[in-house]
Amino acid sequence: MNAPLARGSIDGARLTDSRFTVPGMRCAGCIAKIEHGLAEIDGVDAARVNFSSKRVAVRHHESLSDQDLVEAIEKIGFEAQSVAANPLATDDRESKALLRALAVAGFGMMNIMLLSVSVWSGAGGVTRELFHWLSALIAVPVVAYSGRPFFESAAMALRHRRTNMDVPISIGVLLATGLSISETMTGGEHAYFDGAVMLLFFLLAGRALDAVMRNKTRAGIGALLSRMGKSATVLDDNGAHRRLAAEDLEPAMLMLVAAGEALAADGVIEDGSTTLDNAMLTGESAPEGVRPGDLVNAGAINLGNPVQVRVTAAASDTALAEIARLMDEAGQLRSSYVRIADRASRLYAPAVHSLALLAFAGWMIAGAGWHQSLIIAIAVLIITCPCAMGLAVPAAQVVASGALAKRGLLVKDGSALERLAEVDIALFDKTGTLTLGELVPQLGHLTTYQASVALALARSSRHPLSKGIAKTLEAEGIAPAALSQLREESGVGILARSGDTQVALVRPQNAGDHIATSLRIGDETIDIAFTDPLREDSAEALAALHREGVGGSIISGDRVGPVEAIAAKLGIAAQAELLPDAKLRLLEGLKSEGHKPLMVGDGINDGPALAAAHASIAPGSASDASQQAADAVFLGRALMPVALAVRVARKTMVIVRQNFAFAIIYNVFAVPLALAGMVTPLIAAVAMSLSSLVVVGNSLRLSKAAQ
User: Fold this and answer.
1) How far is the CA of 196 from the CAs of 46, 199, 619, in angstroms?
2) Exactly one of 429, 532, 602, 631 is catalytic; which is it?
3) Do residues 136 and 180 lie in contact, with contact meaning Cβ atoms separated by under 8 Å?
4) Is the pLDDT score of 605 beyond 80?
5) How far lies 117's CA from each of 127, 133, 143, 466, 549, in Å?
6) Confidence band (pLDDT; 50, 70, 90) for 698?
7) Alpha helix locations (H) across 549-704?
8) Mean pLDDT in the chain?
9) CA of 616: how far to CAs of 414, 420, 427, 601, 607, in Å?
């Protein structure tokens, strides 16, 4: 590792952000261990863990390389990999490994069970010994391969002098396998290879389901930062120009931003006027005109003329990068939410260890001998295996998520359903969320000739309003008029001649809060208004949420006029012109008052709020960053999936609690039998498997929950 930077020199130093995937994180204790461990390293300003995506965001001095930080995380006790170095190798690697292990365990379980049937049926002598040896030949490599996720996790925990759920699981599997090998080698009557492999299969099934839920549709936060331009043309004092990567830009440099180019840094317009698509930061549908002296942000797209921009902030100091940091910080706060399965399993490991140890010690004192005492202890470990508990949550969540997917809502993280079930207030962005985010021109008042002129003009412009006019008129079958001398003037519009008549599409004189353009034909001016239509079922969706006890309101970055108009139509409260940090403060205020808010938004400006809310949903038309920050994504033009998600989430938690109740009742009856020596490891494995099947069967009732 490079020489560390003295902590006192961090202030004022140039800091950068790095992100790492840490697949070995298992619980809330891992979060604290990683964050505290990294915070103690010289040169690290802050470390934030996002448990749902199993990633760590580190803000550090640029002298520390990603490899330095990977080594530091490994010294803390966790394998890590830089997201920047290999962004595709991280999120689903664990899922694939678990699925492979599950397939191997399933194959081994089926074959060993076939051999065991003959032994159960009374086969003895040489036949029994042969079947035990064949079972051993199958079971040992299966246990070695499929048990790795548990063995590695248990070994890591023990190396760092702590325990977790995988420790008793590993002990039970290894003891059962070791005892079975001993029985096979000495010609004993009983072997428990089938129980050990069956145990692994059901545990892996629950863990694989949970991993699939965690990684479903998960995308990296790099999707947000990718919206910034990758490079920029920089003008020197002598007029020469050169192309620089975005990370090499510095304040005071002069960028030349061509038409259609995304800004690579924040800055101030120094020369030229143009129109910017800045919706990702402001949430506004309409493009914004800018002129010398106006502040512009990285990621905005230049729709009009080339402009010169004096850089004020670049790389990790831009407004877009700040939103990314806000999303990371807010996401960490939400990822500290302790899932119901984690809460239920906190006492599992010490309780099972104690029971198995007491069983062994008690039977040894009673004179049963080490062999019989060990068999009883193994039976206790297996029969109390958390298979039913491990399946209780992911099985219900996967079935519920499948039911919601059929209705157009994709849930990305299993814990999201738990949080959706708890929300008590819903906050909606306006543009693209309550509305469709599509600017639709109102053209019914145009004559056929006026419409044909408007189409001919609109087709010649890249402006979003012109594109909307052209799309609508072409769909109506209007033929464009024959125009001549077409030209586009910056800040004015599209001008041309129709015969001897001057025609134009220009900015209206007095649009007020309304989005509009003006069609001029000679001395006649016809205003064309644009509307962003509400989703047709917005009112019904809000009413459905109200029936679930969830009130709704609007928080938007749009102007006051359009926001209040929508709020009045829907009969809900609203706040307008809110910047990303203002939305974040509003959500934190609600949470401090005891509320559990649901945020529904689509723009990059909603990203921090989506990450900070107790639960969040984004439409399918949302930016990549918003979909990454949200817990769920709804598809199509209807808003009802949002209300449906809350209702199904609450039904899911009822099923989850039923599953846990059954798992507890099962253990209440099964554990005393195991302690009494009335259960062999094989019977314990069968009982454990049956309890798992009951939990899965109960969870399947959710398949019709979204109907």
Assistant:
1) 44, 5, 45
2) 429
3) yes
4) no
5) 12, 15, 20, 75, 55
6) confident
7) 560-570, 580-592, 607-612, 624-629, 640-675, 681-699
8) 77
9) 13, 8, 9, 8, 10
The band of 5, judged by pLDDT with boundaries at 50, 70 and 90, is very low
Cα separation, 404 vs 419, in Å, equals 16
Report whether 43 contacts 6 (CB < 8 A): no
Reply yes or no on whether the pLDDT at 138 is more than 90: yes
Percent over 90 (pLDDT), the chain: 9
Angle ∠(354,356,361) on CA atoms, nearest 5? 90
Q: Using alpha carbons only, how large is the chain's radius of gyration in Å?
A: 31
Which of 170, 140, 155 lies closest to 356, judged by CA? Answer: 170
- How does DSSP assign 324-359, residue by residue? HHHHHHHHHHHHT---HHHHHHTTHHHHHHHHHHHH
Say how far apart CA 634 and CA 636 lie, in whole Å: 7
Name the band, by pLDDT with cuts 50, 70 and 90, for residue 13.
low
Helices 640-675 and 348-365: crossing angle in degrees, nearest 10, is 10
Q: For residue 92, how many other CB atoms are within 10 A of its CB?
A: 16
Torsion of CA 373, 379, 382, 388, to 10 degrees: -140
Half-sphere exposure of 37 (CA within 13 A, CB side): 19
pLDDT tens digits, one per residue of 29-43: 566 678 778 888 888
Question: Is-catalytic flag, 17?
Answer: no
Q: How far apart are CA 103 and CA 110, in angstroms?
A: 11
Cα 693 to Cα 659: distance, rounded to the nearest angstrom = 11
Q: Euclidean distance between the first and final Cα of the chain, in Å? A: 57
Residue 8 confidence (pLDDT) above 60: no
Q: How far apart are CA 323 and CA 15, in angstroms?
A: 16
Q: Helix (H, G, I), strand (E, B), or coil: what is residue 425?
A: strand
Q: What is the mean pLDDT of residues 641-664?
A: 88
What is the identity of the amino acid at 477?
G
Contact, 58 vs 332, CB < 8 A? no
Q: Say if residues 560 and 577 touch (Cβ distance below 8 Å).
A: yes
Beta-sheet strand order (sheet of 266-271): 241-245, 231-235, 254-257, 307-313, 266-271, 295-296
- Residue 429 confidence (pLDDT) above 90: no
C-alpha distances out from residue 7 to 43, 69, 90, 162, 384, Å: 6, 16, 31, 30, 49
CA atoms of 694 and 245, how far apart (whole Å): 58
The label of the residue with tokens 């975005």 reads 246
DSSP SS3 for 321: helix
Contact 486, 461 (CB under 8 A): no
Which of 429, 411, 437 shows the shortest CA–CA distance to 621? Answer: 437
In whole angstroms, what is the distance from residue 175 CA to residue 149 CA? 17
β-strand pairing of 551-555 with 425-428: parallel
Following CA atoms 526, 532, 537, 543 in sequence, which dihedral angle do they give, to the nearest 10 degrees?
-110
Q: Which two tokens stand for residue 279?
A: 């919706």
Tokens of 151: 């063995």
> Could you tell me the two tokens for 51?
């448990």
pLDDT exceeds cutoff 90 at 485: no
Cα distances (angstroms) measured from residue 280 to each of 293, 318, 427, 579 = 21, 14, 19, 12
pLDDT of residue 172: 75
Distance, in Å, from the CA atom of 195 to the CA atom of 180, rounded to the nearest integer, reads 10
d(CA 35, CA 57): 10
Helix (H) or strand (E) holding 102: helix 93-120
